């Protein structure tokens, strides 16, 4: 039971974690994705007051999970400035998506779609918390946080918020600013925020780093634009096909 409250840095070295695509990982990954699909379906059918209440609950829960994690790390002597600060992309997106829900700024909503959604999906598919056992509060917070990060942009889209590719340059400037802040923190704290120094094991970033060597940061930027091309290109194709179907029905 004590292991439930133990941070990664204080766990026994021989304690088995949750490997990527292992039985435990897949056992929670598919139900989480199914939950998100079901949540969007039910959200569309809900009345406007209930949709607003659901969005606000999900939006507020993300910063609360971040603060709870920091509090528990401090309480269990597991806080390490080199990796515990909320400076990773998904941590930052938790606050951005909360802002998008409550304040409805166009940049926050676009960032939720182009950064929060794909970032959370990648984290769910290839989680970096492989050293933690599943029945651990920090692992459960990780799963809950990234599930909400993935779900909220989908709910915003179901509410009628449409992404716009013309806003991507502004989003990229935001990412560059975050990368600059994280690079300074990494140099001072010897950390790895935004995975600027080392790609997490088992992820596509680790493959890129091995392939690109010193050009790893440039390939990270190229990867961002590739993901956006797939995401927004797929969305454009979807709207085009949907438009054709609507015209056929009218005829």
What average pLDDT do the residues reach? 92
For the report, how would you describe the main beta sheet? none
How far the N terminus sits from the C terminus, by CA atoms, comes to 65 Å
Residue windows where pLDDT falls under 50 for at least 5 positions? 246-251
Proportion of residues in extended strands: under 5%
Care to count the β-strands?
Answer: 0
Count helical runs: 8
Structural summary, described in words:
With 251 residues, this protein is mainly alpha-helical. It has one domain (2-250). Helix content is 69%, strand content 0%. The protein contains 8 helices and no strands. It has helices at residues 23-45, 48-75, 89-102, 106-125, 137-158, 168-189, 204-212, 216-250. Helix 1 (23-45) runs parallel beside helix 5, helix 2 (48-75) packs antiparallel against helix 5 (137-158) and helix 7 crosses helix 8 (216-250). The termini are far apart. Mean pLDDT is 92; it is low at 246-251.
């Amino acid at each position: 039971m004590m292991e439930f409250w133990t941070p990664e840095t204080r766990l026994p070295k021989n304690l088995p974690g949750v490997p990527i695509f292992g039985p435990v990982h897949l056992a929670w990954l598919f139900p989480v994705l199914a939950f998100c699909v079901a949540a969007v379906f039910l959200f569309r059918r809900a009345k406007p007051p209930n949709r607003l209440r659901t969005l606000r609950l999900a939006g507020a829960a993300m910063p609360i999970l971040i603060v709870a994690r920091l509090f528990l790390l401090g309480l269990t002597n597991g806080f390490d400035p080199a990796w515990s600060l909320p400076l990773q992309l998904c941590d930052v997106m938790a606050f951005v998506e909360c802002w998008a829900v409550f304040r409805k700024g166009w940049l926050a909503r676009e960032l939720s779609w182009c950064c929060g959604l794909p970032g959370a999906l990648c984290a769910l598919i290839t989680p970096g918390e492989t050293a933690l056992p599943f029945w651990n509060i920090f692992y459960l917070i990780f799963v809950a946080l990234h599930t909400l990060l993935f779900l909220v942009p989908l709910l915003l889209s179901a509410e009628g918020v449409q992404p716009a590719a013309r806003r991507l340059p502004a989003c990229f400037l935001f990412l560059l600013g975050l990368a600059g802040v994280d690079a300074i923190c990494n140099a001072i704290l010897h950390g790895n925020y935004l995975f600027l120094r080392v790609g997490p094991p088992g992820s596509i970033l680790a493959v890129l780093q091995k392939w690109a060597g010193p050009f790893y940061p440039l390939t990270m930027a190229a990867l961002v634009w590739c993901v956006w091309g797939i995401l927004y290109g797929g969305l454009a194709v979807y709207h085009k096909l949907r438009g054709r179907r609507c015209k056929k029905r009218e005829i």
